[in-house]
Amino acid sequence: MKVFYSDYFVLPLPEGHRFPMVKYSMLRERVAASGICGSEEMLLPRAVSDAEILRSHARGYLRRVVAGTLTGKEMRRIGFPWSERMVERSRRASGGTLGACLAALGDGFGANLAGGTHHAFTGRGEGYCVFNDSAIAARAVRAAGLVERVVVIDTDVHQGNGTAAILRGDTTVFTFSIHGAKNFPFHKEESDLDIALPDGADDGEFLAALEYGLERALEGSRAELAIYLAGADPFEGDRLGRLRVSKEGLAERDRIVLGSCRERGIPVAVTMAGGYARDVEDTVDIHLRSIEKAATLLDLKRGVVDG
Ligand SMILES: [Zn+2]
Question: Which residues have CB less than 5 Å away from ligand 1 (the ion)?
Fold first, then answer.
């Protein structure tokens, strides 16, 4: 399976910063060691262009991000210090999702070892998100004439508020978000389908709601491509999650989402989104299992095609 990774994903941060940046390089090591992809399938994402970004973001916002002239307040809302490297990282994270979409359209599945920057709005960023990779990638594949309709399946514990806002009124992209009702962002936007779960929701509650929502999203969207945000933060050991979903529950989530798409013949680009477990190894385990599941289904599909 084609997997996209760049050393730019690991942004150097000031000491004591709470974002677990190391998860990306750890995940890359685990993916490389697992045999999920050969060395020729671990690919460098390109940086998305201004024109690609401008399909989803305001020109003034892009200009100020690039120039480093966002206000202190705007940067605090994003949560990373500005640097040219931060800008390049944001372009490459979106490039990884676009690459995963194109790989999925060819192979059935593809993965970005970062991405899921769903809190980025047209004219501002927040929650560690600068550019909205799902919106940028969906509109790039649409503009290339590769698909008519895309579905975004956002299972990160935080609502995909930026994605919902950017894509509101865009009938070619269906947005589905399942998230914690009381979690950040405290003002929720309106996705095409939202499911808000109470604090402490466990495997049973989470998975039942997911199956219900997924069915509606896949039926309603008639999508030819899915972008799946496999956030690791609904996990019971997450510092920010507020839910009580186990690792096994999250593996079952992957099976349900990826399996349902495969049954319907919908290619899936898998992106990582959030993960803030007290032990970063847990976050990496959860992300790795999402990628492994996609790779397994891809091999099954190849087996069917070949045999
Ligand atoms: Zn999150």
Answer: 156, 158, 231, 233, 274
